[in-house]
Amino acid sequence: MEENFDLKIEAYLGGDMTPEEQKQFEEMMSQNPKLREEVQLANEVNHHLNDSAWMVIEADKNDPVKQELENYVKSDEAIVLKSKLRQVGANYKKKRSNSSSIKYIVGAVAAILIIALISNVFWNSRPSHDVLYTEFYIESDLPSIIKRGSENKLLTEAVALFKSNEYDQAIQLFEQYERETQGTDPSIYIYTGFSYLENGNFDRALQNFDKLLNSDSIDKSKAFWYKSLVYLKSDRIEECKTILSQIIDDSLFNAQKAKRLLGELE
Question: Which residues cross the membrane (predicted)?
């Protein structure tokens, strides 16, 4: 069957024809037994796909994977696959006249097709780097730099701006505090670094995390994890993998998370 007919069959069964197109197509079927047989087989294939495929992920009707699967089933690639499935059914029918056997073979191959479709969707649905960053960067895990009894209004305001996602203003106040305060807590570099990171200034983010790494802070080893997040968000994946491996090998801060993230990137 020509590819043009495959598209017409899908349009006919999917209700995507105009009334005039539908009338013309039905007249063609009445005069063409082979076309009529193709439509019957296509309807059988669609029955298995529509009734069986959705059962796999019916639990969540708003699942984006289900929507992606549905879009794929309706794609040109899937139409070609379903056309091949109809050919299998047609060839089998020539050898066996038992209609229940025909339905069995069509159903079996349809099940294989469903697995292929779902596998294709899931294989190509690995989390993006932005999604992974959102998963592994947890603001509440950052160490506190507001010490008990501290009344530094500048630092308090800077942290409040940071937590309100006002990163430009937060950077100004953090850096002002750093200039004006002797013996600055190196943890401030963490907040300044993430402020730059959230603003997309990856180089300045790395500079601040390097300041932390080169400090005498007890939190300095955390800089490796923070730098891995910079590399992740900036799509420098090989550098991200390298530093994650170092975290794992040396059992540094967030070694277990590093192992999970590295697994997602492999």
Answer: 102-123
Residue 243: pLDDT band with limits 50, 70, 90:
very high
H-assigned helices in 124-254 = 129-136, 153-163, 167-180, 188-198, 202-213, 222-233, 237-249
Angle formed at CA 38 by CA 32 and CA 43, multiple of 5 degrees: 130
> Is the pTM above the cut of 0.70?
no
The CATH classification number of 130-265 equals 1.25.40.10
Cα distances (Å, whole numbers) of residue 213 to 190, 209, 217, 221, 225: 10, 6, 8, 6, 11
Identity (one letter) of the amino acid at 54?
W
The string of pLDDT tens digits covering residues 59-92 is 444 555 555 555 655 566 666 665 666 565 555 4
Alpha-carbon torsion 214, 219, 222, 227, what sign? negative
As given in the structure block, the two tokens for residue 175 are: 């850096």
| Closest by CA position to 212, among listed 200, 221, 204, 203 | 221
- b/e burial code for range 78-91 (CB count within 10 A of at least 16 → b): bbebbbebbebbbe
Compute the mean pLDDT over every residue in the chain, rounded to the nearest whole number. Answer: 78
The 10 Å CB-count burial string (b at 16+, else e) for 185-211 is bbbbbbbbbbbbbbeeebebbbebbeb
pLDDT tens digit string along 13-49? 878 888 888 888 888 888 888 888 888 777 766 655 5
Three-class SS of residue 127? coil
Cβ atoms 143, 219 nearer than 8 A:
yes
**What per-residue confidence (pLDDT) applies to 7?**
78
Percent of the chain with pLDDT over 70: 65
Q: Is 157 exposed, middle or buried (0-12, 13-18, 19+ CB in 10 A)?
A: middle
